[in-house]
Amino acid sequence: MQAEERIERFKEYLASERRYSRHTVLAYSKDVTQFTSFCMVEGFEDSLPNSASLRKWVRYLLLQKLSEKSVHRKASAVKAYGNFLFKSKLLDELPELDINLPKLRKKIPTYIKERELQVLLEQLESKAEGYEEYLQFVILSTFYHTGIRRSELIELTQNQLSLDRRELKVLGKGQKERLIPLSSEITKQLDKFVSLKTQEGIDSNFIFCNFGGEKIKEKWLYNTISSLLGTTDSDRSSPHVLRHSFATHLLQNGADINAIKELLGHSSLSSTQLYAHNDIAKLKSIYKNTHPFSE
Q1: HEC profile for 117-137?
Q2: Residue that wins the pLDDT comparison between 42 and 233
Q3: Is 291 an annotated catalytic residue?
């Protein structure tokens, strides 16, 4: 079987069996294609993954000045490819791919101050007159009130929302399902938005859609949120900043970190613990008010 056919079958496996998002499928297949091309140039037999080829590719990537995070993802893609080949009986043995990777430098998540977001949401709501303006406002508000990912928000359907129970059912990475409670504020906003869709005659299974009922595009969503957040003091203005803000504000207000982990849909607590490093000002305040020699 040619390398191209193996990679096509790998993509199908990631999408159908592993239930990975479209972004992850595209990223992993691109990484494996790059790895296969590298193996062909370097003379590795059949371009199949093994520790020697993966180790040499990682060294090459680092020489190209790729970030540690990108190298880790690319290595993960090749490891997933190796597992797929063995599972599909395209390899007789599970390839040994346990190699040393560069240590990841963990970045403290960027977030927007609570009061600043409140002011922005109030301004957007007061100015939202037509359907598109209210759509932009309620999307930003939903991001902040729920902490969901961009891909999760785009795919939300009507049956995932229960205004009566004030719950949102979210399908996260690997199609893992989680329930997110909704505050009275976001429930009212979503209720008004659903009513507005009905008044405009918009018939769509997607909660957030354009005027024609089609689900919103990723590029439009990213650009819209970036534009709306451009008035804040944050040095970043992507939709993910709202997810960071959601988690940080919960932690600042006393939420248990394990509960935040469940709300975010993290598989590991280590991902959630990054938010514990965000609020150094609060730590200084606690130290000042509690340590006997803090003055």
Answers
A1: HHHHHHHHHHHCCCHHHHHHH
A2: 42
A3: no
